[in-house]
Amino acid sequence: MSFRRLTITAACFAALTAPAVADTTVTVLHVSQDKTTQDLWDQIAKDFEAEHKGVKVEFKYLENEAFKAKLPTMLQSDDSRPSLFYSWGGGVMDAQAKAGFLKDITADVASVEANMAPTAVSAFKEDGKAVGVPFDEGVVSFFYNKKLFEKAGVKAEDIKTWDDFLSAVKKLKAAGITPISVGAGEKWPMHFYYSYLVMRIGGEHALADAKAGKDGGFKNPTFVEAGKRLRELAALEPFQPGWLTTKHADSTGIFGDGKAAMELMGEWFIGMQAPTSASGKGQPEDDIGLFSFPVVAGGKGKATDTLGGVNGFLVTKTAPPEAVEFLKFFSQEKFAEDAAAGGAYIPVYTSAEASIKDPLVKQVGAELAATSYHQNFFDQDLGPSVGRVINDISVAVAAGEMTPEAAAAAIQEAADQQ
Fold it and tell me: Which of 22, 94, 142, 387 is deepest in the core (most CB within 10 A)?
């Protein structure tokens, strides 16, 4: 055998035995800190790779605020743009679509949308065209420590109105217990209070009417009153020391360590409170309860009007065909049932609800099932510029740095400039 033939043979053998290099990489950018969710997604990626040789799926995590800060720049660059990325829908998604960053995948995903909740599917359409696929939906609720409530003589079932809630806060303080943990350092957790107060005072059409400029737009009495109620709560000093600079994960960890009685947060709180606690164990789920945001006396909103998100993945304009194939694979009903059974999240497949085993997740699911009106997060619904102002003013009003009237005017000014 000649030297040349030996060389060729050796090269062929090396090529066959060397680790395979992916022909295509699908990058998926997300914000989920829940380990159960991350483990499930990693397994789905491995299953897809096993069926699609030459394709590598990489889930990449960015902390919530870093995600929001970096994504706009990433979307503008072919080098850094992910194939798929996490989204809450709403005005932010609309802005991304109008900027030309998203791909029309209507024809590709019709089959997986067929058995999903219609409201969830519509949340990921822009001008009737699908630009992504939802995977879960959730609601913001008050989570509470049952033992701390018992110590202070507070009963969650008695908290029906805003005045009931303020009374519970006072009782907890009197018992030497920090009533509420909040990650105001990231601002958006505080906007849950302002948003719910707008909904409870103004009712189902409050936000839509303000966006349409009715009755003074965002300067109308509903938004001013919401600010007054928020300031009324903050004046009781219900939050943990340093709340203005506390990050979301840290505030959830404070609850997990039993150092605060309540946190107003989305359903992801369930999987976060243990790993973010100093102990790493958090509160036993049997010791955690939840209740809906209270109604405001004289307000138009109902206790069953809910604030929350429909979460999904959007497809970018330069995503390879394999990214859409992975999204369809990811969106199979069997994986939704796995997510439900593992307590990762509440899937948008109604059939998956039967698979939910976690008692707290079941309660969140029941709250969603009973909703009379479901509102997307204000900061997402209103788009990046107005949403940012909503978050800013929520903290400023709570801190006593801005009057409710000035806060409402600031939102309207941002809306006028958008």
Answer: 387
The pLDDT score that the predictor gives to residue 117 is 87
Asked if 112 and 326 touch (Cβ cutoff 8 Å), the reply is no
Same structural domain, 222 and 296: yes
DSSP SS3 for 162: helix
Q: Is the torsion defined by CA of 385, 378, 364, 245 positive or negative?
A: positive
Give the range of the structural domain holding residue 240, as residue numbers without chain letter: 141-307+377-417
Query: Which of 371, 399, 156, 392 has its CA nearest to residue 262?
Result: 156
pLDDT tens-digit map of 123-132: 999 999 999 9
Integer Cα distance of 353 and 404 in angstroms: 41
The total domain count for the chain is 2
> From CA 244, how far away is CA 398, in angstroms rounded?
10
**Smallest Cα–Cα separation from 301: which of 363, 229, 234?**
229
pTM score = 0.86
Pick out the chain residues at pLDDT < 70.
Answer: 1-22
pLDDT at residue 22, rounded to an integer: 63
Q: Is 113 exposed, middle or buried (0-12, 13-18, 19+ CB in 10 A)?
A: buried
> How would you label 15-44 residue by residue, b for 16+ Cβ within 10 Å and e otherwise?
eeeeeeeeeeebbbbbbbbbebbbebbeeb
My answer on whether 66 and 86 are in the same domain is: yes
Q: Which residue has the tokens 């030459």?
A: 54
pLDDT value of position 3 = 36
Backbone angles phi, psi at 135, to 5 degrees: -130, -25
| Separation of alpha carbons 256 and 272, rounded Å | 9
How far apart CA 164 and CA 19 sit, in angstroms, is 64
